[in-house]
Design brief:
By secondary structure, this protein is of the alpha+beta class. It is 40% helix and 18% strand. The protein contains 6 helices and 10 strands; from the N terminus they run E-E-E-E-E-E-E-E-E-E-H-H-H-H-H-H. Strand 1 and strand 2 form a beta hairpin. The structure holds zinc ion. The site of zinc ion has 8 residues, from loops.
């Protein structure tokens, strides 16, 4: 799940420095980020003061990823695609401007900046790891069973020789019973041999393993920099706060 789901992003002008200020309240306090250079936001945009719960506007993120923008005070003006709004559902493509001078803000840039401060959620990787681990276990079990089938051939042939030897030692050189048992064991050995051979020829373990690894390497990646995170169990990964490749912050 995206780490922004369920969050509220307060947006306004930064007091004094007049950059675009974004603020998000999370479990351990208020986190802020700024966009642009000093003085880049005009005075027509109201100040963002997260401690006082005031800003020009706010975006509430639903648990399903929907974004809704709220103009916070009647004297503020918020436009979506050129129309003045109080409350409006947003998409990344919407053109949002603030204040009478219509200061433009980029929704995608804002959500990206906020993700950088609250961190990127990696909780979906738990299932990716579990699926890989289970598939690998099934594959290894399949290979073990195949090895077992192939190894059954030897005991069958050894047993055939052994029974002949036992009969010989008790004085029975030739009898129908002996021949039947020997023949039966030979047939079993032959079935096992050819079945093992058939299973070896039709076995796709190597191809399946290759596909499994390929998919895992595509899916088990840092949500920010997309770098493969290696064959490390999710529980171990979860002990880190950052991705070890590009220090991308991960959400708790
Ligand atoms: Zn990363």
């Amino acid at each position: 799940m995206d780490s922004l789901f369920g969050k509220v992003i307060w947006i306004g002008r930064e007091p004094q420095k007049s950059r675009l200020l974004l603020a998000v309240k999370s479990g351990d306090g208020i986190k802020t980020a700024t966009i642009g250079d000093y003085g880049c936001v005009s005075n027509c945009v109201s100040c963002c003061k997260p401690n006082e719960d005031t800003a020009h506007c706010k975006i509430t993120m639903g648990q399903d990823g929907t974004m809704i923008i709220h103009n916070l005070k009647p004297q503020n003006v918020t436009y979506v695609n050129g129309l003045e709004v109080d409350v409006k559902k947003l998409s990344n493509q919407c053109k949002v401007t603030l204040g009478k001078d219509k200061y433009p803000i980029d929704i995608e840039q804002i959500t990206e900046a906020v993700r950088n401060i609250v961190g990127y959620s990696i909780s979906h990787l738990e299932k990716v790891w579990e699926d890989y681990d289970n598939a690998l276990y099934r594959l290894q079990k399949r290979q073990k069973n195949l090895g077992l089938i192939k190894s059954l051939y030897m005991p069958c042939t050894v047993l055939t020789g052994l029974i002949g030897y036992v009969f010989k030692s008790i004085g029975v050189e030739s009898s129908n019973t002996l021949e039947n048992i020997s023949m039966g064991l030979y047939v079993i050995a032959a079935i096992v041999l050819f079945y093992g051979l058939y299973r070896t020829i039709t076995d796709r373990s190597i191809e399946d393993r290759k596909l499994l690894d390929k998919k895992f390497q595509e899916d088990y990646v840092c949500p920010k920099c997309k770098h493969f995170l290696g064959v490390r169990p999710y529980k171990i990964l979860r002990q880190d706060e950052f991705c070890q490749y590009n220090k991308c912050k991960w959400a708790e």
